[in-house]
From TrEMBL:
PANTHER family: CYCLIC NUCLEOTIDE PHOSPHODIESTERASE CBUA0032-RELATED, PHOSPHOHYDROLASE
Keyword Iron: yes
Organism annotation: Herbaspirillum lusitanum
Domain Calcineurin-like phosphoesterase: 1-195
Protein name, entry field: Phosphodiesterase
Record's keyword terms, sorted: Hydrolase, Iron, Metal-binding
Length: 262
């Protein structure tokens, strides 16, 4: 299975700038690039912070932009989103029995699980008892499928204090479920606006840059992160029986390219 992961698009009403850039224009450029280079993908997953302020106008812009995307798409919520406003614009998207924006995508051999880690009033990620119970059932029902877990907030520390303090709070609860079921093969998150990868108690993970702005790689900074304008990218995920491959495609790169002659 080939999956495109886009994250942290932070859309604002048309004509507005965010950190000096047009986040809508950048997202449209991203969609054009995906259509041109990865139209063979099975799915596109956008892992949260769909808007910067959770406003209706930005969600409507998102809906218009997605009409141009040639792939089926799943949308997750981030800390900058507003669940009620999102659902008013996207009323037909799957939710769980408690109204959280959670769901699955199954194939013969894989189950993709999409988590809702949005919690009102905080930038931290949360998984309440209801959401954890849903995940427990969902992992149990996966059968022989390999599970790939998508969320906005990562549960793991990245040695970046300015982002680690607003990661997912229920790290221990999630770890217990992953250990209990033993079928989570890989975890993909957004939120940190950086490419990173590693393992979390033996489970591999990856995070992805945003499409408008990034967070500076600062291993000492505490408190809010420093915004940087490093190049944006999205991830190309190849989910195979033999393993997982993650590539980062810098869709605005215009640097020179040269033949390699050895």
């Amino acid at each position: 299975m080939k999956v495109i992961q886009i994250t942290d698009i932070h859309l604002v009403p048309d004509g507005n700038l965010l950190f000096g850039e047009d986040s809508v224009s950048r997202f449209r450029n991203c969609i054009t690039h995906v259509n041109a280079h990865h139209a063979d993908a099975d799915l596109c997953v956008i892992t949260g912070d769909l808007t910067h302020d959770g406003d209706e106008a930005s969600y409507r812009i998102l809906a218009e932009c997605l009409k141009e995307l040639k792939l089926p798409v799943r949308l997750l919520l981030g800390n900058h989103d507003e669940r009620a406003v999102f659902r008013s614009v996207f009323p037909d998207l799957p939710v769980d029995d408690r109204g959280f924006i959670q769901g699955i995508h199954d194939s013969d051999e894989t189950r993709l699980v999409f988590l809702d880690t949005k919690e009102a009033g905080t930038h931290e990620g949360r998984l309440c008892a209801d959401r954890l119970a849903w995940l427990d059932r969902t992992l149990a029902e996966a059968g022989e499928r390999q599970v790939y877990l998508f969320s906005h907030h990562p549960p793991f520390e990245l040695d970046l204090p300015s982002m680690d303090w607003i990661r997912l709070r229920e790290e221990a609860d999630l770890r217990a479920l992953v250990r209990k079921h033993g079928n989570v093969r890989y975890m993909f998150s957004g939120h940190v606006h950086r490419p990173s990868g590693g393992t979390w108690y033996g489970t591999p993970f990856a995070t992805v840059p945003g499409t408008n702005h990034q967070h500076a790689l600062d291993f000492a900074l505490t408190g809010p992160a420093t915004t940087s304008m490093e190049p944006p990218a999205y991830a190309v995920l190849s989910l195979r029986e033999a393993g997982v491959v993650v590539h980062y495609h810098a869709f605005m790169d215009q640097s020179q390219q040269f033949p390699y002659y050895g």
